[in-house]
């Protein structure tokens, strides 16, 4: 599933980054994630493990690694996760194996995780993390999107709407906040963030050597 690093036109060696997308449920992070994965040649999805039931159209190992609670608990005990949290009564966790080695090799990873996971990743890997929070244009539109998605029962939608304000209250724990009104405009903004963050001096690990050679010339 990993795509090759250094496919972004970089001439210099670069450390990978962790692009985190969070939002209240229904605001569009799965949609934006899918667009990024389809259109950007160099970002890899960090596939989380979860105990929640699979939705229609989801693929085990691609959207999530679907596990039962005892398996998840064992993975926690064996320190399999970079972070984990309980969201809407189900367990979700980010496996650590792929990410840590990948970052060193210059691979970028996309995380569709909630604010609790974001805080944990920031505490562990602050300089690698880029935190983006998506907001819906209005609460009514959020309700329309959750209903229109057609994947959840009325009770689940009600619970997600109930939680939306609490989730939105975490907006200020993020580096960037983007309102997802028009989907293409929102995507363009997220892409601009990704492109700029890739260029950060601290991520360009090959710079010191490059500049040293440059000065010799
Ligand atoms: P999340 O992953 O944040 O829960 P989704 O990406 O599943 O949200 O989006 C929820 C629903 O809203 C989906 O049916 C999606 O197609 C739709 N949607 C997402 N972004 C927009 C947008 N900008 N305009 C209209 N509908 C959208
Ligand atoms: P959903 O069940 O709608 O796919 O996701 C519900 C929530 O769990 C979303 O806010 C999503 O970002 C979050 N989530 C998904 N995977 C993880 C994970 O590995 N860790 C954490 N902390 N949250 C996750």
The name of the CATH topology is Rossmann fold
Any low-confidence stretches, pLDDT <50, length ≥5?
Answer: 1-7
CATH C-level class is: Alpha Beta
Largest beta sheet, briefly? Answer: 5 strands, parallel
Distinct ligand kinds: adenosine-5'-diphosphate, guanosine-5'-monophosphate
Instruction: State the distance separating the first and last CA atoms.
Output: 41 Å
Task: Kindly report the average pLDDT value.
Answer: 92
Gyration radius (Cα, Å) is 18 Å
CATH architecture designation: 3-Layer(aba) Sandwich
By CATH, the superfamily comes out as P-loop containing nucleotide triphosphate hydrolases
Domain tally: 1
Shape: globular
Strand percentage: 15-25%
Secondary-structure element sequence?
Answer: EHEEEHEEHEHEHHEHH
- Class of secondary structure makeup: alpha/beta
Count of separate DSSP helical elements: 8
Side by side, the strands of the main sheet go 2-7-1-8-9
Structure overview:
This protein has 217 residues and is an alpha/beta fold. The chain has one domain: P-loop containing nucleotide triphosphate hydrolases (Rossmann fold, 3-Layer(aba) Sandwich). It contains 8 helices and 9 strands. It has a 5-stranded parallel β-sheet, with helices on both faces. A 4-stranded mixed β-sheet has the order 4-3-6-5. Strand 5 (81-87) and strand 6 form a beta hairpin. Adenosine-5'-diphosphate binds next to helix 1, helix 5 and helix 7.
């Amino acid at each position: 599933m990993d795509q090759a690093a250094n496919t972004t036109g970089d001439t210099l060696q670069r450390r990978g980054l962790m692009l985190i997308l969070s939002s209240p449920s229904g605001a569009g992070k799965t949609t934006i994630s899918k667009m990024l994965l389809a259109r950007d040649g160099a970002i890899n999805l960090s596939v989380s493990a979860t105990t929640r039931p699979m939705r229609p159209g989801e693929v085990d190992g691609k959207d999530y690694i679907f596990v039962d609670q005892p398996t998840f608990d064992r993975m926690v005990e064996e320190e399999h996760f970079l972070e984990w949290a309980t969201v809407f009564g189900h367990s979700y966790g980010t496996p650590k194996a792929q990410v840590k080695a990948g970052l060193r090799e210059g691979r970028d990873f996309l995380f569709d995780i909630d604010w609790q996971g974001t805080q944990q990743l920031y505490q562990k890997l602050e300089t690698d993390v880029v935190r983006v929070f998506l907001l819906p244009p209005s609460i009514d539109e959020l309700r329309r999107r959750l209903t229109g998605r057609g994947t959840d029962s009325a009770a689940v939608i009600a619970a997600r709407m109930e939680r939306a304000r609490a989730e939105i209250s975490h907006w200020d724990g993020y580096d960037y906040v983007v309102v997802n009104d028009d989907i293409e405009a929102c995507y363009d903004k997220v892409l601009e963030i990704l492109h700029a963050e890739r260029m950060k001096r601290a991520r360009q690990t090959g710079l010191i050597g490059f500049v040293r050679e440059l000065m010799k010339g």
